[in-house]
């Protein structure tokens, strides 16, 4: 019962924080400061809990809880991207392609960042490696797609 | 107060539900990408297929982590890497004019 309640409150807090930041358009707490605060809080919690519990179990458990939090944080961008892909149809003209390109970029970036940070926290370096390689490839994919669309559209205009 | 068993249970349950809800959200984004892939012109379809491979790859990787299905990891790596590289190659092909 305690664990289910914890998961519910944790998910609501994290998804609410992400939704609040998306609504305001910028991070209220800077991400760099937020990461430092989270690391300090995790270390303090680890020290408090390690008086009664084995330190290895404590570190592993808190890292796993943080990895779950990162996955909760990735939920809202993914759903927003899905809604955006359904929402923007062909009736907006030919330049809607670039909007869709941006939305697919959001999907790719969220997926790769979740893979990298969750992999770091659950000690799965294969996940980190694949996520990092994918993170490097994302801008090239977006650029190649936009370039291809631009030149094919110019060619169609000439014809 | 709190002991090791409860802490491990909380951690496992948080990670499981986080991964599961993230997988559902990825599947929803994948549905949008599928719609993009099935309508529109060639470059738009290519973009939709690229996003769909991403969604499928990440979902398969999460399946491997939370359900420990070992072969899903190989499929996920192949989808993520070959999907991106194939998109770049096909975009180059679409960009080229005839005779270039």
Describe this structure in words.
Chain A is mainly alpha-helical. Chain A is 84% helix and 0% strand. In chain A, α4 runs antiparallel to α5. Chain A is elongated and about 75 Å long. The mean pLDDT of chain A is 85. Chain B has one domain (4-95). The longest helix of chain B is centred in the first third of the chain and has 35 residues, at 4-38. Chain B is elongated. Chains A and B meet through α1, α3, α4, α5 and α6 of A and α1, α2 and α3 of B.
Question: Nutshell version of this structure?
Answer:
By secondary structure, chain A is an all-alpha fold.
Please outline the helices and strands.
The complex is a heterodimer of chains A (159) and B (100).
Chain A: H1 2-24, H2 31-49, H3 55-73, H4 75-87, H5 96-121, H6 125-158
Chain B: H1 4-38, H2 42-67, H3 71-95
Helix pairs in contact in B: 1-2, 2-3
Order of helices and strands of chain B: HHH
Helical region count of chain A? Answer: 6
What kind of oligomer do you see?
Answer: heterodimer
Share in β-strands of chain A: under 5%
- The termini of chain B sit apart by 73 Å
